[in-house]
C-alpha cells in the first residue's frame, strides 16, 4: 500500500447534505488530532478530558465571536467508525455557519477530506472489509426496500462471512500442500485428496450460487429495466403517465416529505421498476416498427421486462399474434396488455382471450393493480429472499468467476497427475481472487476507484 492512501492527517468534512433543507448539519472530523482541533474552537468543557461516546453542549468561537451553539459527539479511537478519534459537530444548518466552522477547523490544522476518505480509513484500519465499505455506498444510494435490505445485509457482513469461511478452509489445504513441497523428493501426502476435492466441489457450488444471484441482486439494487412497446396511439404514454402519476401521488401523500420523485421509476412492493426510453415513448416513436428491427432490438435488449401494449380498436387479433411472436423471439419476459378495454364489448374481449392478456384502460386507470401484480409475477420477484446473500456488484462477480476458474484447475490437478506445486499455485490463485472481494488483496488503483465514487463526507 502506498503512503498516498494512508495519511495521518486529521480530516474534516460536512457529513450531511449540503442542500438548504434540514435543521441540523453535522461536520465530522477523524484523526488523532480530531478532539484537540475541535477543542481549540469549542467553549464549554475541556473536550480532551471527556469520555468516549459522550455528547457536549457548547459554543464554537472564532476569537471572541460566537459562530454557533453546537453539540459535539466524541468517539475515541479505536471505538469509532474509522477506528481513529472521531468528532461530530452538530450545528444549525446554515451554509454560512458550516463554511465558517469548517474554515476554522482547517485553520486549526485539519485537512479537507477527500471523497470517501472516512470509509477508506475505516477499511484501512480494519473496521470494515472492502465489500462492506462498498455496501455503505449502496446503502446511502438505496431507494427501495429491496435495495436497502440487500445493502444492509452486505454491510453487516453477510457476504464477507460467507467468503471468509470458504477462504479459511482453502487456506488450510494450501498450507498442507505447501508442507508437502518442503519434503521435496519424499512421497508424502499431508492433504487428503478426496477431502480436498469434496471441499473444492462445495466451494464451487457456493460460488456458482453467488454468481447466479447477481442477476437478482442487480435487479434489486438498480431496479428492473422495463420497456413499453406497441404501435403509435395504443396508449403507451397514457399508461406511463398513469403509473408514474400514481407513484408521485403516493410519494407526495407522505406528510412532510419534500423528496424529489425519481423520474420514470415506480416502486411495487419494495421493488423498483425503471422505465427506459420514456423519451421515445413520449414522442410516440413506435418501438416495434418505426426505426427498424436493429434499433428496436437494441432498445429491447436493455430491458428485462417488456410491457406489450395492444389497441384492439385499431388492430386485429392476427396483428397482435404476429407482434407477440416477434417479441417472444427476444427471450425477454413480457406482459401482454390489451388497452382501451373501456371501448370493448364483452364479446370483443372474448376474442382476445387467447392472448391471455391483462385488460386495462390506461385512460380510465382500470386494471392497473392487476398489471402491477403481473409485473411482479413476471420477474418472479415476489418470492425473492432478500435476506439471502446476493451479489450486487460486478467487481465481485468478476472476482468470483476468476476464483471459479482457478478451482476448476485445482480439481483437474487432483484428478490428473500434476505435482503438488501446481496444485498449491492454483489454490493460491483462488484465494487471491476471493481476497480481492473483501480487500485482503488490493491495489491502490482499485481502492481509489472504489472510494472516489463516494461523496465527500462519507
Ligand atoms: P402512444 O402513442 O402509444 O403513446 O399513445 P397515447 O398514450 O398518446 O394515446 C393515444 C390516444 O389513445 C390518446 O388519445 C389517448 O387518450 C387514447 N387512450 C389511451 N389509453 C386509452 C384508454 O384506455 N381508453 C381510451 N378510450 N382511450 C385511450
From TrEMBL:
Its EC number is 3.6.-.-. Transmembrane segments: none annotated. K(+) binds at residues 233, 252, 254, 257. Mg(2+) binds at residues 237, 258. Signal peptide: none annotated. Homodimer. Heterotetramer of two MnmE and two MnmG subunits. GO terms for molecular function: GTP binding; GTPase activity; identical protein binding; metal ion binding. GO terms for cellular component: cytosol. Its main location: cytoplasm. Residues 223-380 form the TrmE-type G domain. InterPro entries: G_TrmE (IPR031168), GTP-bd (IPR006073), GTP-bd_TrmE_N (IPR018948), GTPase_MnmE (IPR004520), MnmE_dom2 (IPR027368), MnmE_helical (IPR025867), P-loop_NTPase (IPR027417), Small_GTP-bd (IPR005225). Its cofactor is K(+). GTP binds at residues 233-238, 252-258, 277-280. The gene is mnmE. One of its GO terms (biological process) is tRNA wobble uridine modification. Pfam families: MMR_HSR1 (PF01926), MnmE_helical (PF12631), TrmE_N (PF10396). PROSITE patterns: G_TRME (PS51709). It is found in: Cytoplasm. Binds 1 potassium ion per subunit. This is tRNA modification GTPase MnmE. Belongs to the TRAFAC class TrmE-Era-EngA-EngB-Septin-like GTPase superfamily. TrmE GTPase family. HAMAP family: GTPase_MnmE. CDD domains: trmE (cd04164), TrmE_N (cd14858). PANTHER family: TRNA MODIFICATION GTPASE GTPBP3, TRNA MODIFICATION GTPASE GTPBP3, MITOCHONDRIAL. Keywords: Cytoplasm, GTP-binding, Hydrolase, Magnesium, Metal-binding, Nucleotide-binding, Potassium, tRNA processing. Exhibits a very high intrinsic GTPase hydrolysis rate. Involved in the addition of a carboxymethylaminomethyl (cmnm) group at the wobble position (U34) of certain tRNAs, forming tRNA-cmnm(5)s(2)U34.
